Structure formats: C-alpha cells, structure tokens
From TrEMBL:
InterPro entries assigned: Acyl-CoA_Oxase/DH_mid-dom_sf, AcylCo_DH-like_C, AcylCo_DH/oxidase_C, AcylCoA_DH/ox_N, AcylCoA_DH/ox_N_sf, AcylCoA_DH/oxidase_NM_dom_sf
Protein name, entry field: Acyl-CoA/acyl-ACP dehydrogenase
Domain Acyl-CoA dehydrogenase/oxidase N-terminal positions: 6-118
Database matches in Gene3D superfamilies: Acyl-CoA dehydrogenase/oxidase, N-terminal domain (1.10.540.10), Butyryl-CoA Dehydrogenase, subunit A, domain 2 (2.40.110.10), Butyryl-CoA Dehydrogenase, subunit A, domain 3 (1.20.140.10)
UniProt lineage: Bacteria, Bacillati, Actinomycetota, Actinomycetes, Mycobacteriales
Span of the signal peptide: none
Domain of life assignment: Bacteria
Names of the cofactor(s): FAD
Length: 371
C-alpha cells in the first residue's frame, strides 16, 4: 500500500495549515473553549465555505466533493496540530460517516447537505455510562406509538454534543440496535454539558423522555453501521493524535534551541537529545501506522478494522508520550496555564481514552487476529 500523498492532498494540507495559523491560533482556541457550546460559529462557516472541509468525503449528490478517507485524514492531522476547538470530529468524522454507512438515502438527503454547508452540526450518541463504544450495551428504549418513534433513556460522553443541533442515537434491542435522528430542540430531550479533562472539546449527557425520533436505515441494522463508523473514527482520532505529537515535538525542539542553562542551549545536553530522539521515534512510528490505516480504508476495506485499532493504539501512545515530554522539557513554564503545552496534553490524554485506550485496542487486535 502506498503511503505517499498526491499533489492535491499535499495542497490541501498546505492550505489548511495556512488557515489554521491564521484562524486557529492558541488565542482563538482558548477563546472558543471558554464558551459553553465550544463553537466559533463564524469559524465553522468559514471552514465549510472557504475550504470545503465539511464535504470533502461526502458524495457530490449531497453537495460534497466526493473525496475519501485519505483527504479526511489529512484534515484531522492538521486540526490536531492546531488542537482545534471545533465539532469537526463529532459532526464530520463520526456523524456524516454514520449516515453514509447507513445507506439510507432519505436520511442522507435530509442531513448531509446541511452538514456540508455547516448549518447542521450533528453528534453521534452511542456511549453510555461506562464510556465504552459497545453497541451491545445499548439501554435506550425505542417505542412506536401511533406511528411515532419515541426514545427513552440516556446517553453519556456524547462528543461535540454541546454545539450539535441534531443527534444520531443508537437505541432499541441491544443485540440488534437501530439508529435514530433526534433534533436538539425535540420535546423530552435534556442536555447536560459535562466537566471533562479536555476543555477544547465539549461532551454532554443526553436524557430522553419519550423523545420523538426519525429512524435511519432498517430496524435492527445499526450494528454494521456503527462498526464501520467506529473504524473510521479510530483512524480520524489517530490522525489527530499524530498531529498533536508532531506539534509537541516541533514546539519542544524549538524551545531546546532557545533555552539556555549553565551557559549552553539545553538542546546540546545529551539527556535532552535522547528525549527528543525518543519523541521523534514515537511520532514516526505513529505516522506509519496512521497512514497505513488510511490507505487500508481506501484500498483494502477488509483490513481496516485491524489497521484502525493498530493506528489508534500507536498514535495514542505517541501523543501522550510527546505531550508529557513537552511539559517536562519546558521546565517550570510548561506547567503553567499560560503555556499551550497543557492544551495538547489534555487533548492527547482524552482522545487516547476515547473509543478504547491502547490496552483495549490491543485486546481488540487480538480478537480480530484470533490470537
């Protein structure tokens, strides 16, 4: 499998990096994360209109550009570099791909054009109180009364849910769950913003009390849809973690070139060199795993579950290691609120846990490989 990007994909990376340096600076991130919904509406619309990011991997018939997983991977890596405070993962990485995986043309026609132009922000609600992505643990009840589908129960740790105006909710039979669309202003729906480690990415708890919902896809057919969405989500998170690790490495190398101690730049000390070298090895190992997963998802879909789990495990370890080293090697200033290191550390720690930490990904790999 080729791990080489095309000229168009590299141009996408360059344009997005330039965009992030202008509109997604640490100052912008801190301002957005202080808001309850974690959303800069003007920025969100600019990402959709000027760069067309929201519709990159959406078919043209729904207003998208018709590209694929590789282009989306490039976007997530660059957004990770900027530790961007946007609902891109929840709305584009998860919800849009869940809609596409469902094959429900009616639901796709109703929601995807809005997701592409930025007017619809969707969040995927699967996890419950244990925080695990386990479709077999679904406890939300789905009843049909006079032809109206009503949901009762709750979902927890819904990613980017504070900014969402639509939710895609797994509900019904735990052995064969169904997927439903619920408007954020639907009667019987209550939303609670959670206190989380990563302040740049809001998570919410949803409580449903006979809340009206629209079915997506066939009844009881959400299992394969959620499995496919999980695999894509793992790759996107891994790409974001790769971007975080790379940014931490660059930040720390630059600091080591500038900071002096005992009359020498600290980067000249062998102990510091060793740590920086270890960070580089971690970053490059993650890069190979992430790019392999993106290539597998595009060229060999049957290999995606294994490649996605491997990428998530390796990238999680790389990002948590590099963000920790960034704080350590910056010395006292690295521990302060004013420095940006904690933004990367918090995002890395949070995303390393999301959809399963490295140990859980290793267990998933063992199951998939039957070892």
């Amino acid at each position: 499998m080729s791990l080489v990007f095309t000229a168009e994909q590299e141009q996408l990376r360059e344009n997005l990096r330039r965009f992030c340096s202008k509109y997604l600076t640490p100052v912008d991130v801190r301002r957005t994360m202080s808001q309850t919904d974690g959303l800069d509406s003007a920025l969100w619309q600019r990402m959709a209109a000027e760069l067309g990011l929201h519709g990159l991997a959406v078919p043209e018939e729904y207003g998208g550009a018709g590209f694929g997983l590789i282009e989306l991977l490039v976007v997530f890596e660059e957004l990770g570099r900027a530790v961007a405070a946007t609902p891109f993962l929840g709305s584009i990485g998860l919800s849009a791909n869940a809609l596409l995986a469902s094959g429900d043309s009616t639901a796709m026609a109703a929601l995807l054009p809005g997701i592409v132009d930025g007017s619809v922000i969707a969040a995927l609600a699967v996890t419950e109180d244990d925080g695990a992505w386990d479709r077999r643990a679904c406890t939300v009840r789905a009843d049909s009364v006079d032809g109206v589908h009503l949901l009762t129960g709750h979902k927890n740790y819904v990613l980017d849910g504070a900014a969402a105006n639509h939710f895609l909710v797994s509900a019904g039979n735990a052995a064969a769950p169904s997927l439903y669309a619920v408007r954020a202003d639907a009667p019987g729906l209550r939303l609670h913003v959670l206190d989380t480690l990563d302040l740049t990415r809001k998570q919410v708890r949803l409580e449903f009390s006979a809340t009206p919902a629209r079915p997506i896809g066939d009844a009881g057919a959400a299992g394969p849809v959620l499995d496919r969405t999980l695999d894509i989500g793992l790759v996107m998170i891994a790409a974001e973690l790769l971007g975080i690790a790379q940014s931490c490495l660059e930040m720390t190398v630059e600091y080591a070139k500038q900071r002096s101690q005992f009359g020498r730049r600290i980067g000249s000390f062998q102990a510091v060199k060793h740590r920086l070298a270890d960070m580089l090895v971690a970053v490059e190992s993650a890069r190979v795993a992430v790019y392999h997963a993106g290539s597998a998802g595009t060229n060999s879909p049957d290999e995606l579950p294994v490649a996605a789990a491997m990428a998530k495990a390796v990238a999680s370890q790389a990002a948590t290691f590099c963000s920790t080293q960034t704080i350590q090697l910056h010395g006292g200033i690295g521990f302060t609120w004013e420095h940006d290191a904690h933004l990367y550390y918090r995002r890395a720690q949070s995303m390393a846990l999301f959809f399963g930490n490295p140990a859980q990904q290793h267990c998933r790999l063992a199951d998939l490989l039957k070892v």
